[in-house]
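Support request, please re-run this one:
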Amino acid sequence: MSNLLDISELHWLLDIVQSIDVGVVVLDRDYRIQVWNSFMENHSGQSARQVSQRSLLDLFPEIDRTWFTQKIETAAMLGTRVFTIWEQRPYLVRFRSYQPITGLVDHMYQNVTILPLRTVNGSTDHVCLIIYDVTNVAINKLQLEAANTQLQELALHDDLTGLLNRRHWENCLEHEFARHNRYSSEASLVIFDIDHFKQLNDTYGHQAGDEVIRQVAEVTQGMIRDTDYAGRYGGEEFVVLLSDTPLEGAVLFAERLCQAVAQRRILHGEQQLQCSVSIGVACIHPGMADHRMLIEEADKALYQAKSGGRNRVVAAGQTSIG
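Re-run finished. Output below.
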């Protein structure tokens, strides 16, 4: 009777292995396939008979041999389970994804458990791979991370121009000022606004005004270095924080920016618009108590540029450069 029970239990176990919605693969120590359940058949398109005694590494060349064999040997040698998760490696074997989340990924994300199988004498001659389809979990997490990244970007950038918003560029300026105090590094601030913007807005409409703002921002973004920060101060006013840049270098940058904006042809519908900018420049110096003083000096220079005829650059403590 006990033998009959053992045979029945084995039959039940085999039936369970075939029915569960996870991949079950048993390998010998040469990585040859001994067990291949229906999950693996359905997703690989190959039957248990077709893959029997074939090397899993030959059957799926996408498997990183060095990484995989190290995992298998660790499980076999220590006699403990080894786990891999999709965040570390998206999949062990590349299967197409048939989850209802269509159009997002073309492969199945997988978690894998490597289970050493001991004989009655305690040796490990086989290992079992249990492969879980975690595509839904992975996609949900990736979508959440993407949404959080997008929200963070929106929190840091101005909607209209894509430049840094005022809160963020002021934080950058504050950090740059602290860096100057600690390391005596140089930095300059360029503040500029679009000349006669209200007149342009009143004449051509707010949509044209928005397009002019976008185009000026695009010119600015195209001229800065990776280490610089370009932001929107508010309305038609902009700033550029030039790190490791003395006043003379900032003035040269401002002159090139002034010329580039004046030369830009802005198409809005059938209209071709032009604009210019007035620019104030200041640099950090020992007499400044905090970053707000740098903004104040650059702002005063901007006022002088506008008072002096616009479409020009004024550096703090200097006369205008037309």
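Residues 2-142 form a domain with the Beta-Lactamase fold (CATH 3.30.450.20). The chain is about 45% helix and 20% strand.
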